[in-house]
TrEMBL record, chain A:
CDD domains assigned: RHOD (cd00158)
Keywords of the record: Signal
Pfam families attached to this UniProt entry: Rhodanese (PF00581)
Species of provenance: Thalassococcus profundi
Keyword Signal listed: yes
InterPro entries: Rhodanese-like_dom, Rhodanese-like_dom_sf
Highest taxon, organism lineage: Bacteria
SMART domains: RHOD
Domain Rhodanese: 86-192
Signal sequence extent: 1-24
Name the record gives this protein: Rhodanese-like domain-containing protein
From TrEMBL, chain B:
Descriptive protein name: LysM domain-containing protein
Pfam families: LysM
SMART domains, sorted: LysM
Residue ranges, annotated region (Disordered): 45-64, 177-198
InterPro entries xrefs: LysM, LysM_dom_sf
Domain spans labelled LysM: 146-195
Range of residues in the leader sequence: none
Length: 194, 198
């Protein structure tokens, strides 16, 4: 019994070691599409995806998460920082874990890890109160634009759904799809989280 | 056979007696209930004091008997009883609490909405309130009314504003009444709410 447990633990850790040493592996594009193939003027063309994380959950996100949630590009995020965040009525929210946020994020972003927004967090009401959502009938204080690691991170969709079900109005929620990696890929500066 | 049974019964009786009276443990009067006041800063010191008698429950005289009855299965529950209870908050829930508090602290610092440390609405205040009212009952107060009766048109936020003059007390107010409220908006006219001390 004990030996079997140790053996299975070794096998599992071995699997993780293999997965860790090969960061890029074939991954699905979206939950229902493994590959895309088409023909152009008689030539067959195929597109596949190599990614560090498997899909699901790390599937490529659609441009629009929901019809009433606005998606932001970099110029829109910059304007959002210059106007709404600077006037104290909005927050750019990094949904990643505190360690990733501390290592480097979009300058001016605040950190709200996605798991703290889930309905099973017993302290969710306190967190929502800090965002000004004290009463479901009242308007919260802040417009939020949420982002995570990259356009294949599933956390913004989950967080937006959790916020909406907690009573946060969709008109006050936005989605920066490219995330920190898309931001840095354009050469825009990042800063360690506060 | 009868001798073995008598031995077992005698062992159980002696063990139960020793656990109950705890001759080597500290005086019960010292441990029973120290006064908990607002000025008593070291509330955390209570837990080691309460656990001390439980950590040395198996008395020395019982040891030889235990060896002679090594095959006797019955004494095991006795040992299990003396294990200190696990802390009420542990593991994942504790991590989530720390994560949420850290997030709120950063949020309040970033937005400038944070109240002064210890004041109603501040993070420290919310933590103290939660630790003081683990069962959801507000502590007795001699300066403020301890119960509020809900009137038409009330919400938790308006009650907090009215009673404490601080809308940030909504969270502690809801926390103190979680037993009777399904959600922050679940208020009924005439319902009595416990008022936590600010």
């Amino acid at each position: 019994m004990g030996r079997a447990t140790i053996l299975s633990a070794l096998m599992v850790s071995g699997l993780y070691a293999v997965a860790g040493s090969a960061p890029a592996q074939e991954a699905a594009i979206s939950p229902d599409r493994q590959k895309v193939s088409f023909s152009r003027n008689g030539t067959q063309i195929a597109i596949s995806r190599n990614a560090a994380d498997a899909c699901p959950p790390a599937c490529i996100q659609p441009l629009t998460l929901a019809p009433d949630i606005r998606t932001y590009g970099e110029l829109e995020v910059l304007a959002f920082l210059e106007t709404a965040v600077a006037s104290g009525t909005a927050l750019l929210v990094d949904l990643r874990a505190p360690e990733a946020y501390a290592a480097g994020t979009i300058p001016g972003a605040v950190n709200i890890p996605e798991q703290t927004l889930r309905a099973d967090n017993p302290y969710l009401s306190d967190l929502l109160a800090a965002l000004g959502l004290t009463d479901p009938a009242a308007q919260p204080s802040f417009d939020l634009v949420l982002f995570a690691d990259s356009a294949s991170a599933p956390t913004p969709a989950v967080a937006i759904e959790a916020l909406r079900s907690s009573g946060y109005p969709a008109s006050k929620l936005g989605y920066y799809r490219a995330g920190v990696r898309g931001w840095a890929a354009l050469g825009l500066s990042t800063a360690p989280g506060e | 056979m009868i001798r073995t049974v008598l031995f077992a019964l005698g062992f159980i009786a002696v063990t139960v007696g020793l656990i109950y009276f705890q001759p080597g443990g500290p005086d019960r009067a010292d441990v029973s209930s120290p006064d908990v006041t607002r000025s008593d800063a070291a509330l955390t010191d209570l837990s080691p004091a309460l656990e001390t008698p439980q950590t040395s429950p198996v008395p020395e005289p019982a040891a030889p008997e235990q060896i002679s009855l090594a095959t006797e299965p019955e004494p095991e529950p006795m040992v299990a009883v003396t294990r200190p209870a696990p802390p009420p908050m542990a593991g994942a829930s504790d991590d989530l609490r720390r994560l949420t508090w850290d997030t709120m602290r950063h949020l309040n610092a970033a937005t400038g909405r944070g109240a002064a440390p210890g004041a109603p609405g501040s993070l420290l205040h919310a933590i103290v309130q939660r630790s003081l009212t683990p069962s959801g009952h507000a502590p007795a107060s001699d300066v403020m009314p301890s119960v509020y009766t809900v009137r038409p048109g009330d919400s938790l936020a308006t009650i907090a504003e009215q009673v404490y003059g601080d809308v940030n007390m909504t969270g502690p107010l809801f926390a103190a009444n979680q037993n009777s409220l399904a959600g922050p908006s679940d208020l009924k006219v005439g319902q009595e709410l416990a008022l936590p001390r600010p």
